[in-house]
Amino acid sequence: MGSIDKKHVYSYSQLEQFDQCPYSFYLQRIEEGNKEMLLENSFAQQGTLIHNIIDRWAKGQITKEQMPDEYVSRYPDEVDNNWPPMLASKGYASKTYDQGLDYLINFDEFKGFEVLDSEVSFNVKFADRNFVGIIDMILKDKQSGELIVLDHKSKSFSSFKKEENNMYRQQLLYSKYIKKRYRKWPDRLMFNLFKENMKVERPFNELQYKHTEDWARDIVAKIETFDMFDWYETKKGAESGKDFFCNYICQCRGLCPNGHSR
Fold first, then answer.
1. What are the distances in angstroms from CA 148 to CA 143, 144, 159, 176, 179?
2. 113-215: which CATH topology?
3. Dihedral through CA 59, CA 64, CA 65, CA 68, nearest 10?
4. DSSP secondary structure, 36-52, as one string
5. Contact between residue 135 and residue 174 where contact means Cβ atoms under 8 Å apart
6. Which of 85, 134, 209, 220 could serve as a FRET partner for 79 with CA atoms 20 to 30 Å apart?
């Protein structure tokens, strides 16, 4: 018997987490008493801060000119985790701070696009299960009229390219909501790589959408059939080696034998 039943509400981040490390999924989603011990990281904190500032601009709460000052004033309190020591020793903290500030100083206001909505929470049926998520932005191309799903990412372009096909799974899942709301699929899927002030995109492809549904259905089936023995086996796997993600990124690094709380 599995540890999660068919009434569980999923998200893309849950599927991605299980796909990457089932044991971290177990620690965070099943052993719920661990929630107070989950850890943030500075990469995610900076991304969350910039997400919020862009959203506040999109909703008319601040102007373009106010965005850099808000970043400077909020950064010390909201990006308060230590950067990984091998990066900190190379001045990474200062570099990534400057990249965020430069993006906001030179913010292009999504020129050529109409912002239809920002930070859109949704609930849809996907792969026969209930899914929730948040779309960072829905855009309309002013020239072509095309509908675009956009997600802000703090990744570098080189890191993005290494994971490109997997990254687009998120946008493809979110497309189900676009279909529900606008009665049509989005025309394009876009990522705003804000640290490099770069936008990357690809056309929506219905076959790729179906492949993503198959992937999600397979992950859900594994989650729902795992028993305690299976979770124990994933723990043994987590103990077998250490890497950068486990030590500095994973929220469960303070709980897992493969991580630490730095």
1. 13, 11, 23, 13, 12
2. Lambda Exonuclease; Chain A (3.90.320)
3. 90
4. GG----HHHHHHHHHHH
5. yes
6. 134
Domain with CATH 3.90.320.10 in the chain: 113-215
Residue 219 CA to residue 236 CA, distance in Å, equals 20
pTM of the model: 0.90
Cβ neighbours for 4, distance < 8 A, ≥ 6 positions apart: 29, 30, 223, 224, 226
Closest CA to 103 of 139, 54, 59, 167: 54
Taking only the tens place, the pLDDT of each residue in 14-59 is 999 999 888 888 888 888 667 778 888 999 999 999 999 999 999 9
Angle between the N-to-C axes of helices 206-225 and 12-20, in degrees from 0 to 180, rounded to the nearest 10: 70
Phi, psi of 15 (to 5 degrees): -65, -45
Beta strand pairing call for 147-153 and 129-141: antiparallel
For the chain, what is the mean pLDDT?
90
Span 118-163, pLDDT tens digits: 999 999 999 999 999 999 999 999 999 999 999 999 988 998 999 9
